## 1
Amino acid sequence: MEAADVGLFAASWWPYASYEALNIAAYLSLWLFMWDDEMDSAEFSSLINDYDQARAFRLETLAYARRCLVAGVDPDVPDVPEHASIASFGPIGKAIFTACTSSQIEALLKEVVFFVEMTDVEQQVQIAGKLPTVDEYQRRRMGSSAVGKQGQVDTLIPLLYARYGTLEVSMEKAIETLKTSVTAFELSAEKLLGQYGGDEELYDKLKKFVHGCQCACTANLTWR
């Protein structure tokens, strides 16, 4: 844990967060990394080779996450699941339930559901042995973690190579995609800040929000 420098990781991602919020975000991130290893790492789990068990694991995870985050939902779900990777969400979920508003919890739960669903899609692709299209991959990637399986080929460059047939063009297309995203972000940020330049307090908050989004895009580079 010391070698991972979780404190730097969290601070790089959320530089404006309070200590309490940063602590919750750090532990939530660690849980996501650990849980994802159960899905895609043969070194830590057998679920990668057993879709039915993996699906049951995902359903149990979502049921427990809802139990922790939404009061009174699914009372029959065990208070503490047997699997440690699911049960470890408990303290995090309770902290989020205490610290966040109902709308914030709803938004987070929606993202957790999307994340879990995309691991299902990813496993189905792996089992089928068929490469997804670039568009299918990009949608799935929006809900997956930052770490790919060992030997995984359904990542952006190989998929672009399958489409265009040369590494040079594939790299150019990947860089073009990145540049287009950066430009779109900068234009949106400029437009947003320009609309509220007359309100100093709101403008400062929006400026922090924009910078926070930039940090979220570059945080792992800072951390590593």
## 2
Amino acid sequence: MVAAEPAEQSALRITPGRKLRCLALHSWRTSASIFQQQLARARLQDKLSDLLDIVFIDAPHLASGPIPDDVLPYFEGPYYEWVTAEETPVGVEFDLKKITTSHHFIVSTMRKHGPFDCVMGFSQGSVLTAALVAMQLAGKMPSDIPPLKCCILFAGMKVREVYL
């Protein structure tokens, strides 16, 4: 473990008593409202309320296909997605236009409603959360977006695609 320099320590310091501002990214073909309900049903929203000020956002794309069986009977729409992927004979093919649009939408939201201390994602939202952290670590996030202090991932998956 490498000790942080004094300047790095002050940049990562959190004011005691201040809630962390957290941007929440929902899962595939759900919504901000559904993610909020899922956290409430799991009793996490109450447990986190003294620590986090959570801003839930909808993905910029309406769901382009069937709503998952574990969502439709329990949650009302509208439903959104961050990206789509299709199985092809050579593997999974991602919609690069949707990935780019979603990334720009999240960065725009961070500018408009930030600063954010952390990003939280569930399933597809966790993939985008991990990508944001990776971009930050690689120095590829816009310089006007303050560095994230942490991320919270629920039901994530390993990202193998370079453009994610």
## 3
Amino acid sequence: MAAGSSLGGVILPIMVNHIIDRSGFPWAMRGVAFLLLGLLVYANLTVRSRLPPSPKPWSLFEFLMPFRELPYFLVVFAAFLFFFGMFLPFTFIILSAEHDGMSNHLANYLIPILNAGTFSPHADVPCVHLHPADMPLVSIFGRTIPGYIADKTGRFNTMIVTSFLSTILVLALWLPARGNVPYILFSAFYGFSSGAFVSLAPALVAQISDIRQIGVRTGSMFAAISIAALVGNPIGGALISNEDGNYTHLEIFCGVMMLGGSVVFVAARWSLAGFKPAVKV
């Protein structure tokens, strides 16, 4: 399911840009709405529950109880910090690239590249070609391959590696990026590493939860981290405004928040198994 959203992330931005050029913004939004409507009709007609539903009274206390457990609290807090920064590249990468000299035509492909990447000759950028039909689906692989690796090496271990990788990419590649190639490389690699977080976060909750509580505990986690996703972009915009249109403070904020989340993931692993790097957790 997470991989499917990456495929949508490749198709929809390109689709919207082309429809806006041909028919204007209103019809672009209608086109997206009709596409989603058709997909949702199909999904709702074909989805089946594995077990019969068993309704029970809703209780706020049931959603708050898991936070009393240290491993669960640390996982949610780590995801909260990571979410503060994770979506900032998706929101500001186009504007940041244009600020550093990338053409508008090429910059509009950076979001699809965050979900897919390719490298070959292009008229605007030597040795770089962007065509959706050629794209190896980087973020789709980022949402599938780490899950397979996590089953072999440990979910917490894999999450820690991919989280630190995302942090390094922000601070060591996006922050100093000046020119087209660094932005395209960052978009492709960050799409892979951040895609791993999307697919692995619920798996971490499932690993430390009773199977009967996975739904409630996963919902509690996403309810908490949605706050970070909501306020992260306005904070990023304010940082840009305070710096007179420069993106340096935004990029630093993004990297530092993700670094904090990565460190807390390490603490969550420690709460389960101690500092034993060879243990599968």
## 4
Amino acid sequence: MAKFVGSISLGLLTGVSYTLSTLSIPSLLSLPSAQTAYNTFLRLQSQSLFHLRTLSAISATSFLAAYLISPRYAQHPYLLWTTLVVGLSAGSDLWFSRDARIILVKENRRRQQHQQRDGASQLESSEDDMGFEGIGATPQQHQQQQQPNGEEVKNAMERFQLAQTVRGLIGGLGFVMSVVGIWGDGY
């Protein structure tokens, strides 16, 4: 039973990675506004990584448990190899998307600093009744400070897309291994 749960969750993991890399990220890259793309990408990234990590954990745990609880004659090495491939799949995501996370963290910090500065500027400008936010800044300059850097957002999305492509390929290899292994077991 654990072999089937592992195989199904590994198949879902592969499908989600494939969908992210071929459909979702290219659609986000075509959005006209960096702000919209940035907000959507942050949400997509946080939601998808939660589900991908959950599927990876379920799959790896299932294959390892199937190996450990099987009688000695049924402890096939493909279960360990498939567990290793699932681990590599999760590790590839960490390796390839670390730059994307760094870029987005820097972008997020930059935006928070602007918001803190703008909060202080708003207090000062409201006391002076200047009529716009920020000391010495026009409303257009203030709006430009709030916009995320489009190139950094694009680079982060492309790194995430590469990570999901590699994760999907490695996960697909693991899925094929698990299906062939289950077939070889005679189920």
